[in-house]
Amino acid sequence: MRRLTLRLRLFLSYALVAVVGAAVMAAVIEIVGRQLFDHHMTGMGFEMGGHAGAGMADLQATFGWALTRALLVALAVSLVAAVAAAVLVAGRLLRPIDAIRDATHRLAAGHYEQIVPEPHEPELAALVRDVNSLGRALDATERRRAALIGDVAHEMRTPLTAVRGYTDGLADGIFPAEEVLPKIGVELQRLERLAADLASVSRSEEGALHLHLADDDLGDIVGAATERLRAQYRDRNVQLIVDAGRVAPVRADRDRLIQALTNVIGNALSYTPAGGTVRVSLEPGQNASAAITVTDTGIGLAPGDEDRVFERFFRVDSRRHAGGSGVGLTIARSIARAHGGDLTAASSGLGKGSTFRLVLPARHRVSGGSAPSPPTG
After folding, report:
1. Cα distances (Å, whole numbers) of residue 182 to 171, 194, 209, 284
2. What pLDDT was estimated at residue 321?
3. pLDDT above 70 coverage of the chain, percent
4. Domain total for the chain?
């Protein structure tokens, strides 16, 4: 029905143009044509009176009827051309539109892999590109969702398997309770930490990561975060160098920033071998902002992984597992963006270490005591 309606509208528009043009031509012939005919015949020496005048009248009528008949023929041909043009143009318009409709139906059914060919019309081509881009985005989202389910299942499988083994051994009397119960507690804490981290990621992506902002000193926040991890650095024989003596006033949620920095500095420890170094520096940023850089001498990042490290459960080296939930950097970036800043990563390549840079606006104020929703990325 929509195709018939479009064709009919196109035909009526073309026919209206043809009819209006014919009406204008008929009016011009009636008003101007007769005068020009009389003037031309008079100039040739023909008189309109007497017997010759009657002949001239017949000639004038014949001339007028010939013009009218030619005009009617032209109008009929124009109407036929209008029908052909309406069918042709409607077909050229409706074919890509039908393809777009089919594509949206496939998207609604969960099929994101098919690409709609681009038509020649620039406006429709732009619409097709948008639909194809939407399909690719939905496909990527679906793949991430499936990967997330698999990653969560993988992260839960290890502690659950350990708990199952401990409880079976306890029930069979193989392990003494005083030896097994603390180990079960450790695995349960790991599951609790995973659940809490996933909840934090979910809140940040939903824009529900609320901050309790207050004026603070970023250097003092850096000191608090590094002190949390100093004992772990000693145990792993990794040198931790902190250069955060300057004052950097910010308006921030202290606990959230300490959490973000702990995740970043702890991640550096996880991927730096014994004997390596991690340097945490506080430096002025651009546009009245402050920046924290965490530079390590660890395994580095491969080209293209600078942004992927912030994806949930992404690990540079799948063989290396430091017991984390795999979403620490995701949470850290969400916290940074919730404060109006950002967290980025850079590396010269594998084996050449990494640098994480957390930038915050100085004295960034947000009305109402909570930050804007962090953008996803």
Report:
1. 16, 19, 33, 46
2. 47
3. 75
4. 3
